[in-house]
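Pilot study result, target chain (66 residues):
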Amino acid sequence: MIDLDDEALVAASRELGTATKKDTVNAALRFAATRHARVSALLDDPHSYGVGTDIGDAEVMSRARR
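Predicted structure:
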């Protein structure tokens, strides 16, 4: 038995699309447990910053809007 923040539980349930307290808590735990991997994948992908593969192409960049 644990004491849960009911407002946070409702907000998490909406965000996660879950229907029960158990499903919400388990989904939130999975989300938190995999957060590091998701952040690392974004940081390792240059396209996630909005930078294309042509960023190093001088000809393309000379025509880029500033």
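One observation from the pilot: The chain has one domain: 6-62. A full batch analysis is planned for the follow-on phase.
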